[in-house]
Design goal:
Blueprint lengths: L1 E8 L4 H17 L5 E3 L22 E2 L4 H13 L2 E10 L5 E8 L5 E6 L7 H4 L9 E3 L2 E5 L8 H9 L4 E5 L7 H15 L2 E5 L1 E9 L2 E8 L3 E4 L2 E5 L6 E6 L13 H7 L20 H13 L21
Parallel strand pairs: 1-2, 1-11, 2-4, 3-4, 8-9, 9-10
Antiparallel strand pairs: 1-15, 4-5, 5-6, 7-8, 10-13, 11-12, 13-14
Helix pairs in contact: 1-2, 5-6
């Protein structure tokens, strides 16, 4: 499977960002046979619920199906490739949203989707989360998709690996202060779970205002592909870039020999892990209610009027 990992730059103009994505697909597919083109989280630009991005509501979110997705479907047919639309803010048309990753097949049909299961920041208030995690069957075998902060929950990659995925795509966004941690975490997860991880990130700065304070979120790219044996390709941290990597076809979980991670999986004793389903410190907190209260205090009640504002401090996570 030949994969093209597109590292994008945050664009001030969402139309410019969309055209850049189209151009990247046409250019990389024009240079050879590409089986999958994958993008970072928030492909269309900053979601309206990030700090100071209220004016983007209705621009960087979209219904599915809709004109934006139609454009990518037409392009997939034109260049004969699969496209993993990193993630888009899906407008559910009922006042709520989802952080959704779509897989578009060579014929232009949406063949599968993954919805972020672990909301980050304001997503706790405005986005519906997935209630389950599963693998996707493709022409190359089983794959998994972990949308940004889903990756940071160790059970996610493990569940996808146990279900037979040997390649896991992670559309995300590396925060500058987390760059070294991100690289180490991706490489370690690939090794421990005996999977290849394809990570797509973005570069640039998103600026907004929280209360009376300017907030800048710096994204440091570092898109990469890592096998259980180590990193095989890695982008820089400052510029848009495309990585083209040939991957082994994902297996279908048929018990074929694997690396250390696979052997350790065979030693698992699920009966001893019941505590994973028990309560934990903070389990009974209503994080969404706490976030609404915090947002209302920072915005003079704007959150209570259904207009959430950002609450992601500089030190949090890998995306919003």
């Amino acid at each position: 499977m030949r994969v093209a990992v597109v590292q994008t730059r945050w664009a001030d103009d969402h139309h410019e960002g969309l055209q850049s994505a189209y151009k990247a697909i046409e250019e990389v597919c024009g240079g050879g046979d590409i089986d999958m083109v994958c993008f970072p989280e928030f492909l269309l630009g900053p979601p309206w619920y990030m700090p100071g991005q209220d004016g983007l509501r209705g621009h960087t979110d979209t219904p599915v199906p809709g004109p934006v997705v139609d454009g990518f479907q037409s392009l997939a047919r034109k260049v004969d490739t699969n496209i993993l639309l990193g993630s888009i803010v899906e407008d559910l048309q009922d006042g709520m949203y989802r952080n959704t990753s779509l897989v578009i097949g060579r014929q232009g049909a949406i063949t599968d989707r993954a919805v972020k299961a672990h909301a980050f920041g304001n997503e706790m208030v405005v986005c519906r989360q997935a209630e389950s995690l599963g693998v996707m069957r493709t022409e190359f075998g089983l794959i998994g998709v972990a949308v940004c902060s889903d990756f940071w929950i160790p059970e996610v990659i493990r569940l996808l690996a146990l279900a037979g995925a040997r390649t896991v795509f992670v559309p995300g966004g590396t925060l500058r202060q987390n760059q070294a941690l991100m690289v180490n975490a991706l490489r370690t997860a690939a090794y421990l779970n005996d999977v290849t991880i394809v990570y797509a990130s973005s570069v640039g700065v998103v600026r907004g205002v929280r209360g009376d304070r300017l907030v800048e979120i710096h994204f440091a790219g570092t898109s990469l592909v890592t096998t259980p044996g180590g990193i095989v390709a890695q982008a820089g941290s400052d510029e848009p870039e495309v990585l083209v990597v040939d991957l082994p076809a994902p297996a279908d979980g048929d018990g074929s020999p694997g690396g250390d991670g696979r052997r350790w999986q065979e030693l698992r004793r699920p009966g001893a892990y019941g505590a994973l389903l028990n309560g934990y410190v903070g389990a009974h907190r209503d994080l969404a209610a706490e976030l609404r209260s915090s947002m209302a205090g920072a915005s003079g009640g704007a959150a209570e009027r259904g207009r959430p504002v950002g609450s992601t401090p500089r030190s949090e996570g890998t995306g919003s």
